[in-house]
Amino acid sequence: MRGPIEGISELLQPVAHALLQVSEDVPKLLNSEDEQIIRIKPFGMASSAFHILHITGVIDRMFTYAAGKSLSEE
What we know:
Elements: H1 13-30, H2 48-66
């Protein structure tokens, strides 16, 4: 475990750690010598490629809700 991240409240520590992990793992996947590895669907589940594309929307939603706002058509 990395321990607490300075400047982040206790409540948001899990989110901060998840974002740090993603920022480390995504470049490894995208720079893999075997391009097909990110398209594998383990046990029929969504591939890493799907999650990489989907994560920007998820993060945007999280920050929108955290700011007390509602989602818009954008």
